[in-house]
Design goal:
Keywords: Cell inner membrane, Cell membrane, Membrane, Transmembrane, Transmembrane helix, Transport. It is found in: Cell inner membrane. Its main location: membrane. This protein has 169 residues and is mainly alpha-helical. It contains 5 helices and no strands. Helix 2 packs parallel to helix 5 and helix 3 runs antiparallel to helix 5. It is elongated, with a radius of gyration of 20 Å.
């Protein structure tokens, strides 16, 4: 499972970097066409907006893989390790529920309902843009299952490594 996770991490990192570069080029073209050429490209604003949303969701999934998301661990550090492990397992189960119910199921429903709704400046439907929600949900679920597996096997600690917790300060 770790080999699959490492491969997914690499692909997701490459896609995120690629999306960031494309976003940078689109925004630079938008500024150049508006300020220098005095003819703003109509498609750049909408393209940049959706690229940013897609980049944010996919990058958030990658950050979740590294357990780099925001977590309030000051309370966790005060509990015994056994309680920390139980709380960490419950948190992972809640994340899986949220990712599956809200992002995968909800994202699919939103994409399906808006599939035929076109965007004004680019030849893509709103529903196609919303497909990133179920994709992000699947990725977060996958990473959460990896974390859960590590917690249950004892190979992953309840608090991400390298984090400064209240007990260390």
């Amino acid at each position: 499972m770790e080999a699959i996770r490492a491969r997914v991490d690499k692909v997701l990192a490459a896609v995120s970097i690629g999306l960031f570069v494309v976003l940078l080029v689109v925004v630079c073209w938008q500024v150049l066409s508006r300020q220098v050429l005095q003819t703003p490209a109509a498609w750049t604003e909408e393209t940049a907006r959706y690229l940013f949303v897609i980049l944010a969701l996919l990058s958030a999934s990658l950050v979740f893989s590294e357990r780099g998301h925001i977590a309030v661990e000051i309370l966790m550090a005060r509990f015994p390790v056994r309680v920390q492990k139980v709380v960490a397992v419950l948190v992972e189960l809640l994340v899986i529920f949220f990712a599956l119910y809200v992002l995968v199921l909800g994202g699919y429903r939103v994409a399906e309902n808006s599939w035929n709704q076109g965007l004004s400046a680019i030849p893509v439907s709103v529903g196609q843009m919303y497909l990133v929600l179920p994709l992000a949900g699947v990725l977060i679920t996958f990473y959460s299952l990896c974390h859960l597996r590590g917690l249950l096997r004892g190979t992953t600690g309840p608090v991400p490594e390298g984090d400064v917790v209240a007990a260390d300060v």
